[in-house]
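Handout, section B. The chain below has 400 residues.
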Amino acid sequence: VLVQTRAKPAVPFAGLYRIIDFSLSNIMNSGFTQVGVLTQYKPLSLMRHISTGEAWDFTGRKRGVKILPPRTGFKDSDWYKGTADAVRQNMDFIRAHPSKEIMMLSGDHIYQMDLNDMLEFHREKRADVTIGMMIAPEEQLHMFGTAITDEDSKIVEWEEKPEVPRTNLASMGIYVFDTEYLLRVLTTNREEVDFGHHIIPRAIEQDRVYAYPFEGYWRDVGTIQAYWETHMDLLDEQTGISPEEWGIRPNIEASSPLADRCPARFAAGSRVEQSMISAGCVIEGEVIRSVLSPGVKVAAGARVQDSIIFDDCTIEAGAAIDLAILDKRVRVGAGATIGQGEDKEVPNKQYPKHLYTGITLVGKGAQVPPKMVIGRNCIIEPYRRPEDFSAPVVDTGETV
């Protein structure tokens, strides 16, 4: 629901940011100056957000950020077939900006990292490829590429998303390649379209591939569950996640300019605990352990708990929001309830692998009628109107 109208890296995060702001800010803070952003799915929102790159100091004679969508290949026009194919289609961009090494980052990760440390490690090891790796919980390893290393951090075996992992070392999706090595590999093996499935395993067999050990906060927020958990980490001082202290920079001049927002206002009788409240919010009710983007209004008698609320949502009087994510400009009618019921383990019927812990999603611009009751693991599609709700209750696991 959150990516029906935008690319995943353009999804809002922590009220003020987009997910991609973390990668772009790490690049900026590490002093790198030439950036190519490979886009494919629903790129317009991402392109508007990045704009000229000025927000991250990527403007000037020797600085720049360029959007690189799919384009005509050797025979015909096609979508990117994988991560390696995407880079292969843009080798002219790499050649136009000569460098000894090239670094690749994913656009949907939350972390702070000095990329120069990884670059120095790569040079010290005289590696052809270096992969950022960190220790991950066993239950998460099936989502990542995993590596077995020797005593010198050289990778000797690789498993892509193993069902039964033999190591706890997971790939962060961050790579350093010697540029000439990368160009040679991409030119020689044109049938290999993905780094994790094709390029990296073969490189480990034939060449020098090392694991750079990263210690610190890092989360892949590519799933609803991880996205929600990372927001809750944001509200916990013990986790160490702090975008402001990390020097993460948003684009405050983007689609809903933060600079034009008035300060947040907290009315007499309101209550806010362990929450992040952005500029332009008006809080008359209660907000508990939640993250509110700019312009959210919580009326008197309304309660928001364990939730993430995007820009310009309105929660009317007496409404209750519990364990939910609301996209932009959602209106929740007076006395309505989103997130009702104790049975959080009944998954969404259409998407059981996406919603299974009780989180309910409400799409952009939806209007929830007054006194409507919506259960757990529900989906309300974007732009739903009151007449789209056929009954006063949406049972747990259902979709409207």
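Note. Residues 347 and 356 are 4 Å apart (CA to CA). Compare this with the example in section A.
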